[in-house]
């Protein structure tokens, strides 16, 4: 889609999985394993990116945030009404169908992913449509606990696992009893479409984003990945990054293994007081922990750079991933 942003195209990072890239298309579905070409530049130069994934499922992205929508016979099912992107999502939907949004799914209670629910609800209300607003028990409870001003779910499904139906499509909620990202984090499987909507779970065709997609707890991250890998899907929307496949998960597991090993090696030869050697005036033991963590993490990043340094966002995000692993290894070493 043409946009009016002032952007000078840059050379993009190579694929982490040797992907086959195709031009963005709102009409031609992707074949398994294909990804959208020039995705970073498209995000920087267009109003949004719209890709048809299957006959009925579409992948939308603006400013590197992605959501999924499914076009049924009578209406549209939207997964995650992204903050500050609701109007663009509605415009994208209108490009492919004149059917209204009849249901909205909230994957988890993070404002950046669900913050424009009111925008979509208001737009539908203006034409006399009142969509179902579907969330898990965990998300509904969390919103009540926080006293959110966001619209509350009209339909609450069981936690951690449940299923609902939208026209002929069956959708499975897969929550994580021990969630890495946030305590109400879940993924949704569009069963007949074989599409997994898993916001903030992975960043396909990239190394893991900052803090493994802003995870609150690294300890549970890889077990969460294993859970969703057991599901029957071909395409994944991780909320950021490109359209995903199981090959992206293989890359993630190798990256995690290499990161854990690099951190362990660094911990073996960096002493707890090494970060403050030569520094005078230390009057708090906090200095030992923070400087040691930083030193171990950055040593691990240096060790990983020859293998991963060419990939998307390495210099900006890998140190935060390393810090999470340092803490997990420090606290939970077997």
Set out the fold topology.
Elements lengths: L19 E3 L11 E3 L2 H7 L3 E4 L4 E6 L2 E7 L4 E4 L6 H11 L4 E5 L5 H4 L2 H9 L6 E5 H10 L8 E3 L3 E6 L2 E7 L10 E5 L4 E3 L12 H5 L6 H9 L5 E3 L8 H24 L16 H23 L5 H19 L2
Parallel strand pairs: 1-2, 6-7, 7-8, 8-9, 13-14
Antiparallel strand pairs: 3-4, 4-5, 5-6, 10-11, 11-12, 12-13
Helix pairs in contact: 8-9, 8-10, 9-10
InterPro entries: Metallo-B-lactamas, NDM-1-like, RibonucZ/Hydroxyglut_hydro
Organism: Streptomyces yanii
Protein name: MBL fold metallo-hydrolase
Which terms summarize this structure?
2 domains; Metallo-beta-lactamase, Chain A; NDM-1-like; seven-stranded mixed sheet; RibonucZ/Hydroxyglut_hydro; MBL fold metallo-hydrolase; five-stranded mixed sheet; 14 strands; single chain; Metallo-B-lactamas
Structure characterization notes:
The protein is α/β, with parallel strands linked by helices and 334 residues long. The chain has two domains: 20-244, 4-Layer Sandwich (Metallo-beta-lactamase, Chain A); 255-332, no CATH class. The chain contains ten helices and 14 strands. It has helices spanning 39-45, 86-96, 111-114, 117-125, 137-146, 210-214, 221-229, 246-269, 286-308, 314-332, and strands at residues 20-22, 34-36, 49-52, 57-62, 65-71, 76-79, 101-105, 132-136, 155-157, 161-166, 169-175, 186-190, 195-197, 235-237. The strands form three sheets. Strands 3-4-5-6-7-8-9 form a seven-stranded mixed β-sheet. It has a five-stranded mixed β-sheet with strand order 10-11-12-13-14, with no helix packed on it. A hairpin with a 2-residue loop joins strand 10 and strand 11. Helix 8 crosses helix 9.
């Amino acid at each position: 889609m043409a946009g009016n942003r002032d952007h000078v195209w840059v050379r993009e990072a190579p694929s982490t999985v040797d992907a086959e890239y195709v031009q963005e298309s709102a009409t031609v579905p992707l074949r398994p394993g294909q990804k959208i070409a020039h995705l970073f530049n498209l995000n920087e130069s267009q109003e949004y990116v719209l890709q048809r994934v299957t006959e009925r499922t579409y992948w939308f992205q603006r400013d590197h945030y992605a959501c999924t929508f499914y076009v049924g016979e009578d209406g549209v099912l939207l997964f995650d009404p992204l903050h500050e992107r609701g109007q663009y999502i509605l415009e994208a939907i209108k490009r492919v169908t004149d059917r209204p949004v009849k249901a909205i799914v909230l994957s988890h209670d993070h404002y950046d992913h669900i913050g424009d629910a009111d925008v979509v609800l208001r737009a539908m209300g203006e034409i006399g449509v009142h969509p179902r607003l579907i969330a898990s028990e965990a998300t509904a409870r969390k919103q009540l606990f926080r006293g959110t001003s966001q619209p509350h779910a009209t339909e609450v499904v069981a936690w951690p696992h449940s299923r609902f139906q939208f026209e002929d499509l069956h959708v499975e909620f897969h929550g994580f009893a021990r969630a890495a990202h946030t305590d109400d984090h879940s993924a949704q499987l569009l069963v007949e479409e074989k599409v997994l909507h898993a916001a903030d779970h992975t960043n396909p065709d990239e190394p893991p984003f900052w803090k493994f997609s802003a995870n609150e707890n690294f300890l549970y991250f890889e077990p969460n990945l294993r859970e969703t890998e057991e599901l029957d899907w071909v395409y994944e929307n991780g909320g950021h990054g490109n359209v995903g496949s199981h090959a992206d998960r293989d890359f993630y597991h190798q990256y995690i293994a290499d990161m854990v090993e690099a951190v362990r090696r660094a911990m073996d030869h960096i002493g707890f007081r090494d970060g403050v050697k030569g520094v005078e005036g230390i009057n708090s033991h906090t200095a030992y922990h923070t400087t040691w963590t930083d030193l171990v993490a950055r040593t691990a990043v240096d060790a990983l750079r020859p293998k991963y340094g060419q990939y998307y966002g390495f210099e900006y995000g890998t140190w935060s991933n390393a810090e999470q692993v340092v803490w997990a290894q420090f606290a939970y070493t077997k």
